[in-house]
Give the backbone structure.
Amino acid sequence: MTPESALSFFIAIFIFGVTPGPGVFAIIARALVSGAHSCTLLSLGMAVSDCMYLVLACLGLAAIATHWGEVFTVIRFVGAAYLMFLGYKMWTAPVKVSDELNVAPANGPA
């Protein structure tokens, strides 16, 4: 591994680690219920599994790109088509507007 690829991998892991996701919310919920000490093993397990997942995903896609360039190109186009499909579905989704307004009274709560 070259220093440039190691640095880019570190940056990707760092960004992946600092962005909140369902795992972060699970840790916060557990900390609120059982205290911060109970989250140690959960946090460690999530960090290790995230790193393993990223390494295996990178190695798998690198192997496909190296040995089967055409398959990797198909994977890229299928991924792009899927993202465009999701964008189209979001663009054409109907907007749901609620008739009820939850506005507090001007003189404060009763």
The helical segments are 3-18, 22-34, 40-67, 69-92. The chain is about 75% helix and 0% strand. Residues 40-67 form the longest helix (28 residues).
